[in-house]
Queue: 3 jobs
Job 1
Amino acid sequence: MCGFAGFVDREARPSDKNKRLEVVHAMAAQLSRRGPDDEQRFDDDRMTFAFRRLSIVDVEHGSQPIWNEDKTLFVSVNGEIYNHVALRSMLRDPHQFRTSSDSEIALHLYEERGPEMLSLLNGIFAIVIWDTRRRELFLARDRLGVKPLYYAEIGSKFLFGSELKALLSHPDCPRNMSWSDTNAILRSEITYKSLSFVDGIESLPGGHFLLLGEDGTSRVRKYWSVEDNFPAEGVPPKTENEYIEGYHDLFSDAVRLQLMSDVPLGIFLSGGLDSCAIVAAAAKHTRNLHCYTLVEDTVLRTGDAAAARLLCERLDLPLHQVWFDPSRYTGAQRLSLETFEYLMWMVERPIFDPEFLFKHELHRFAKTITPDLKVILLGQGSDEFTGGYSREYKQPAADWDSFLRRSLSYSVSPRLQPLIGERYGVSDTKFFKHSPFQQMMCASASSLQAFNLWHEDRTSSSQGIEARVPFLDHRLVEYLAAIPPQLHAKLFWDKRIVREACAPLLPDELRYRQKVGFFQSPEMNVLYRMFFKMVIDMFDEYCEKYLSGSDALFSRVQLTELLRKGIAGEKPLPEVVQDIGACICISIFDRLCRTMHLNPKISYMTPPSPLEELKTLPSFTA
């Protein structure tokens, strides 16, 4: 995991080179948490670029950007290309490799094949290639959008970067918060687009690339989608067992490839099926694994913490379980407005969910006890393509058909819901041309990058850690997409394909545990109370800082009265606090957008972690 930022200016003057380098240095400074090991800058009077590196592969020699033999092209990659060694044999011409870095293969493949080379890459990546002869910029994002990439076009300038805050540090960047994007979130409207929340800034979708020509014309093209892999009609399916065996083989290989690292790596082990499967598959290749689990009363109640401990005892792997005490963030060490501002800077969106804090603190804890840790494997992305939510702990469906009906009613916008038929089909067959679960797969490919992968990237990178997701190896996703609809109920109900594929890896008591979401149980009041207390504790400080000037977005008088009514019981306190919390997030985000180029100081939440490791599991507290 690394980060890059830059801009192309058709009207750049050679005399302004030092100024441009100062600007790009400021942009890169916002990426220092995701690339703490090195910074390199470049300027050729048209392209100005900076790269921040997290050294994982070829630590000594893999500095970026990497140039081709005649120094007419360079490449920089945020992420990893897992099959880079195998790809060397696919080069048509001899090439001189300058490094052992996985990133360099993208450069030489691009020389030979142009954008078509993307179909060969197995990895998580955001790629930038600069052609000095053609003065052409190439940007690309991995198929599922694991790695972020933003861009903006302003007059003669084209800005791009790994994070929104890098672009916002450029003095010419648009910086007006998008109220339409923000309102969609506030109304809890499901969106499958990766939003920037800033008018004029775009997020390049996963599975797309962008070409910027010398004349300043940009073209965005799709090179991959889930639906491209749906089976054609009339193709005879394999047997259920063949699909299960094939899934096992692909999953095992995905985990093996994603252990690629020259530095320590670990695994977040929740105790659920997916993370347990990753740990068991990884243990076949290395014993140098550290597993980390966040424990709280709700996790104890669901049995996840005990399952994680059981697996590590059987595999003889080190397990670090950390107790998350909400009182630490609402008592003497309360989450102040200043640290809440940091969290908004980290996620760079006007929204907050307690999960962001939980994940951030688990990464900070992992970095505290394993300072050299730079890679974490996650179980993210399995449920979306294997029916993982059909029998979840919180809302188990009665059967496959009822799961599909419920899920489609959630995922289809209110505007289209009247079109849904009694089962799942709609009268608009052009819109819903695929089977119900295929529709859900398409939606998941977009929603993952819009939320889950987005916040996993930000919380991990905030501590200089790269998050990897074996279940989103594109080969696995394509394999699942190619399963014909007539087998969906048999293979995807209650994640049967995953449970059966894990038979060689896990004991039955772990394979058949019910799906439990992160910090989800029937009793969530303690977590909601924590969030309510955080908002109330910082309310006065927030009003003074954000609602006292001419740039206030909300009325201090009205918000204060709203809070009084909530505390007095005149209005439901949970709804009141959620509304006020939303106003706090919006105010902070709006000001960050408007002042980022002024280099505001951010108080990072860095190691050491205030959390404590558990030696034995406590009993559940009602």
Job 2
Amino acid sequence: MKLFADLYAALDETTRTNDKVAALERYFSAAPPEDAAWAVSFLIGRRPKRLLESRKLAEWAIEEAGVPDWLFGECFNAVGDFAETIALLLPPPQSSTRLPLHYWIEERLLPMRDAGDDTRHAWLLEAWRAMDERQRFAWNKLITGEFRVGVSQNLVVRALAAWAPSGHGVPAETIAHRLMGEWQPAAEFWEQLMAPEQKSAEISRPYPFFLAYPLEGEIEELGAIGEWQVEWKWDGIRAQLIRRGGRTFLWSRGEDLITDRFPELAALGAELPEGTAIDGEVLPWKDGAPLPFAQMQRRIGRKILGNRILAEVPVVLVGFDLLEAGGTDVRERPLEWRRAKLERIAPNPTLVLSPVVTAASWEELKQRQEESRARKVEGFMLKRRGSPYRVGRRRGDWWKWKIQPYSVDAVLIYAEPGHGRRASLFTDYTFGIWDNGALVPFAKAYSGLSDEEIREVDAFVRRNTIGKHGPVHAVKPELVFELAFEGIQRSSRHRSGIAVRFPRMARWRHDKRADEADSIETIRALL
């Protein structure tokens, strides 16, 4: 556990990529296989869900630390991180036992899900009393389901490939593929992960997704338009549909197995040739056209899919790439070859081939892009002809050319502190719009400002707070910001009657007064 906690601290304390890779390599060199497997699982985002209610965790921490409730609350407000607050308040450890990471996970953390409160309490005290402050912090992060650290899966893969024992030479692309799908952290998996050759793989395993970069600069800088295959950029759930061993698997980009959520696509899989993997977008689709993504959310939010919702919001897979054919990985084949092979798969009402958009010039394509909103798409995907299907986010071969987002001018009305490094600053904001002479909450946003601008807003909040509700500060309605967002819909759950997708701060409108911000009528017009 100490090695893992030291790794977590090292990753958390630097923003330098090379330093992070070096820390990961040091850990992989020293950790036993069963610990390394668990560490990789957590680092790539497969953290356990919250295993203990925050209320009980705080109650037991307050009791162990011997502090009053109010002091714990004040400490949390100052620190801004629940797991760190507990780690700082607990008394020094009572023993120096150094048990490995896999013991704490397999014998204590995971069994908590089914244990009674007395047992969970005893196990928690056992861990806290055996760990130092750094170990407690990492442990508390795991317990609360909030384990996050500044590394991407690609960075972990890069470190594993660089560390691979001399002579193994396991390519990063191979490691990335082996980390996909369902697997159990254990010494056996670790040996398979780092083996120079792998004769068999889990039958359901998807491929790493190839991700596009936002287009940078002018479209003409990409060269001749004939070098690119252009497709609409769909607004759905990115997924891979796989047919192997007589079974069908539908994987989301987040590596969730979602086959049961989409029975239409499970049925589609049964019609595919054996050994087929298609990359595409799951979309709500009716009468030959996509429905608004809000309709997909109706399905996502239901535990049971009845006949009515299946009829009202049917889905299709808009397929745009073929990754496996006849059980053979074809990702290194040119884009045109994969596309032609995909087109030869038997037609099916729930498999829609992503159409190729034709244009004689970039200027003509710019005009076609204006059709995006009417088509319920986000713009274009630009794919270099002849390119392979790569792993992760790579520059050069795939670009996404999105339409300009919706935007409105809104007034800052509430602010609260952030978390982690931003716990001492007001960084989480609620914005209002005008409705009959009053500001009503419209959207929350957390990103888009520079560090300097955040400090300026923080100073404003401290000077102009007019009310408090817990950590939330109501402020004088004076600051105006342009908010950008991707989608908009009516909502009975929001006071404004409107919900938006992916709101963020596009810029601080120093040139506008609060009374010049947008009104509810302006927002409704966007609908």
Job 3
Amino acid sequence: MTKIILIGSPNSGKSLLFNKLTGLHQKVANFPGITVDVATGTVPQLPGVTLIDFPGTYSLQPISGEERLATSYFNAALTDPDVNLVLCLIDITRLEKSLYFTLQVIRECNRHGKQVLVLANMMDVLARHKIEVDLSGLARQIKAPVIPISARTGLGLDALVKRIEHNRTNPKDRSHAEFVDISDEVLRKHAHRLSSAYGPRGDLLIKTQTKLDRFFLHSILGGFAFFAIMYLLFQSIFTWAAPAMDAVESLLSILSDLVVPAIGNQTVRDFTADAIFSGIGAFLVFVPQIFVLTFVIGLLEDSGYMARAALICHKPLRLFGLTGKSFIPMLSGVACAIPGIYAARSIESPRKRLLTYMAIPLMPCSARLPVYTLLIAAFIPQTTALAGLVGVQGLAMFGMYFFGMLCGLLITGLVFHTNKNKFSDLPFVLEMPPYRVPAWGPLVRNSWNRSKHFVTKAGPIIFTVSVVIWVLGYFPNYGTDLGDSWLGQFGQFIEPLFAPLGIDWRYGVAILSSFLAREVFVGTLGTLFGIEGAEDNMVPLVEQIQSSGLSLGSGMALLVFFAIALMCVSTLAILTRERGSSKLAITMLAAYSIFAYLAAVLTYRLTLLIAG
């Protein structure tokens, strides 16, 4: 099988091009550190061809962990006899930055006898501003074909596929070995000369970006814009997802009414109603919110605003020992801690990378979202203001997200200032990508895939936990008395541990089960209350919590506990792999669990004192 490498700098549109060519839907990001894994796919127009998407890098002289990863993959791939072509993508609107890396790629391909095609992306941007470039002259100078394309609009992709096919059938048609013995310093100077001679004329693109930056990076207006955008992000989680959540809940109710009565065996009927519809169904209701959260974050990334947010955050983050580049991994952790930990590879300083690792698990990830939504809906009224534009529940969600981020900053700040002499302060260098209109199709597909991945990843765990919970709660008395079941006996044994939070054994069991994955808390409660409700198990879970007698203080304590506790086996595994040792993961698990418990007890007492 023929292998083709796709390589390029971050923000060059590489992942979007990969999507277009293969039909696979990879993450499209505007900041280094998002795409860290090698993705592969087949090109429908080219049978027998595998396209390999490498992590983005600015140079073959790596600095960050991600660049080292990309460079090592690339060098290894060049020795693979099945690789006969390298596609090097450049951002034609930023030619000088792209050319230095391109010349390095051409040099390495010459050394290994590999063909190179240089793809000049973003030609649609130049066309829109009526700017011309001499690509044929550039191709003569770099001794490699240069093909104009637009990954966004599809311009030139048919010509690209034909050229790839031509190179496959003419394997001797290789680029000239002009750069084999040239040093990086000479290549850098050559890239500058070529950019001046063949790059886009005029500064229209820079002027357009500067006008927007004057607002978004303004010392006052930029700060207000940042907080407004972040607030809208969290507010949208409730308002945009609400209709879809209602639809999912209605569909589950209809399916339950159709399926459960048709089952003859009493035990199977109870299992279907209590374990499946009450347990897993309670979790599926929150999937639309995962979709909305991923969509809005992707919108900020693709528009180019995310890098500006990192720049805005650098100065305040520096007070806590972090860097502006920590903002992107931390915000990625809002979707899931795992990509956030991967994204921290882009932080050059090992010490600051360590602090970022410590902050990421405290970010309010999507797995916490079902728990927050459930508890907020149970205890916070659906009051609105400003003609319905501002909801109290959305404000509470914003507060929980802010609280989690604040805890992360306080912990990293404490570690940093108590060990300040151990943390070196490397220069903060950040590329400002151009402002762009997001590609809506990939955004929607990525949000859908993220939601689907969330379900497929958490679904088996939740199903397993739901079955175990149901079996323990149903036997040995076949569900006649939950308190006398195996589950009730175990819950009552551990109940003293959670008594200081004002919660009974059912919530204690749900908390312990959620250490497999936070969202299991919702499924476990759905199963527990489904069993307790017998034939009325499809009553909304929120109403069942409200009718269970759980106090406001206990609800607030649970929110605080879930905001702090590190309850994710996958996160611990990724931390161990990234650090090469389990020491940090185990230390964080113990420390955050103790901190969460103590903070929850304090919250419970304060709420009782204030609210009565």
